Every structure is written in C-alpha cells, then in structure tokens.
Amino acid sequence: MPDFAHITLAANALPPDQYNTDREYFAAMTDRFGLQTTETIVALKCAGHTDISRFTVLEWLSFAQEYGEIVSKFVALAALNNANFD
C-alpha cells in the first residue's frame, strides 16, 4: 500500500492559503498548468465575457466554483505524479 504521507504540492507554488486572494491563486495555477484556454471557456460560460475584474459577485461565485474544481484536479494530479510510492 502506498504511503501518501509524502505527497507534496507539485505546483511549485505556495499553498492556496498563502495567496492574498482567490484570483491570485487562480492566476498562478493558470500559468503553472497552462489553463488559459480553460479559464477563458469557464469565464464565458459563467459570465458571457472574459474580463474577470468586471465579474459580478454571482458571476465570480459561479466561476470560482467551476474553475476551482478544474484547478484542484490539476493540482491533485501533479501531486500524485510526484508522489513517492516507495
């Protein structure tokens, strides 16, 4: 059975709670994993435009929920790929 105690954040970035805002965290993860196209698609789906700074509260909440799920999957996959299974 693998020992998951050695799994580390593979994003080469600070843990999520070390960013000042969710927007900063999403921007860092977007750059880290090359998710620019995905971010654009989710923004268009949630708000009908891509200017995140102009999102209403409801648009932001919808975007954060959907995009956050995508980002978390990439972070988890990266961590799993870098896990030590010895």
Give a short synopsis of this structure:
The chain is mainly alpha-helical. Helix content is 57%, strand content 0%.
The residue fraction in helices comes out at 55-70%
> What does the average pLDDT come to?
83
Low-confidence stretches: 1-12
- List SSEs in N-to-C order: HHH
- Count of beta strands: 0
Q: What's the end-to-end separation, in Å?
A: 9 Å
Determine the strand fraction and express it as a percent band.
under 5%
Radius of gyration over C-alpha positions, nearest whole angstrom = 15 Å
The coarse silhouette is globular
Enumerate how many helices there are, as a single number.
Answer: 3
Largest sheet: none
What structural class do helix, strand and pairing data support?
A: mainly alpha
Compile the SSE list and pairings.
Layout: H1 22-33, H2 36-47, H3 57-81
Tell me about this structure.
- With 86 residues, the chain is an all-alpha fold.
- Helix content is 57%, strand content 0%.
- The chain has helices at residues 22-33, 36-47, 57-81.
- The longest helix has 25 residues, at 57-81.
- The chain is globular and about 40 Å long.
Properties at a glance:
86 residues, mainly alpha
